Amino acid sequence: MKETIQAEFENLDSAEAAARAIKKQIHDAKIMAIYPEHPESIRLTRPHSKRFTLLPTAVLSQNYITALIETEYDFEDLNEVQKRQTSMVQLVCGHASVPAAHRILTGQGGTIRFPS
After folding, report:
1. How far, CA to CA in Å, does 45 sit from each of 4, 56, 83, 106?
2. How many CB atoms lie within 10 A of CB 110?
3. Which residue among 62, 73, 88, 89 has its CA within the 20 to 30 Å range from the CA of 15?
């Protein structure tokens, strides 16, 4: 009988490493999915060097004066939920392989999620 196992990891790289270890050591395991829990976090890893802000400084009767402010990009402005790169691994394996799969996933830094 086949069982579905789901594990949560801190980032996508460790989830992929755990999936490789499962494929290497458990031959009847089939990796169903590896996905980030917050897909918007993947976009944040691209390099952002500068952030530009257009700041109005004065409004006169004939002119609208602005200043262009250039600052280093600061990730502190982002919501904590958007920064999390928690990833999930979902796999299917035989009932006899479940303890070995749990051991590998936990050893690679994962937290097993049991169905509710």
Report:
1. 31, 31, 9, 26
2. 23
3. 73
Distance CA 37, CA 11 (A): 10
Residue 35, classed as helix, strand or coil, is: strand
Instruction: Please state, as a whole number, how many other Cβ atoms lie within 10 Å of the Cβ of residue 22.
Output: 23
Query: How remote is the C-alpha of 22 from its chain's centroid?
Result: 20
**pTM listed for this prediction:** 0.62
The predicted model gives 16-32 an average pLDDT of 90
**What is the residue range of 26's domain?**
1-37+86-116
- Do 71 and 90 lie in a common domain? no
The DSSP-derived string for 1-59 is -EEEEEEEESSHHHHHHHHHHHHHH-TT-EEEEEEESSGGGGGGGS---EEEEEEEEEE
Question: What would the pLDDT profile of 46-98 be if each residue is shown by its tens digit?
Answer: 555 566 666 666 666 666 666 776 666 555 555 666 566 788 899 999 999 99
CATH number at residue 91: 3.30.70.2750
